[in-house]
Design goal:
The chain is mainly alpha-helical. It has 4 helices and no strands. The radius of gyration is 12 Å and the shape is globular.
Length: 85
């Protein structure tokens, strides 16, 4: 899946599953935690979606903001996990 497709898919998931007052604030690089879009419980929903949608099991060591605090970071994480070894 191309990077722009992953970005669009992640953005669509976030906007349809989490309450967002202004969708324009959810840019690719915006912090979902700082915006209050996703909290720690919401991240569990994201992890479940990754498993169901992409077959990705998130390891404990991967549960860090660098991987999940933003649309672009989530899309990049998915891209890395789906890349051939």
């Amino acid at each position: 899946m191309a990077a722009d497709e992953l970005l669009a898919k992640v953005r669509a998931y976030i906007l349809s599953n989490f309450p967002v007052a202004d969708a324009a604030t959810v840019t690719d690089d915006a912090s979902l935690l700082e915006l209050g879009v996703v909290d720690s419980t919401g991240l569990l929903d994201v992890f479940e979606w990754l498993r169901d949608e992409f077959g990705i099991e998130v390891l404990d060591a991967e549960m860090v903001p660098d991987n999940f605090d933003g649309v672009a970071r989530i899309a990049a994480y998915i891209g890395r996990k789906l890349a051939p070894a």
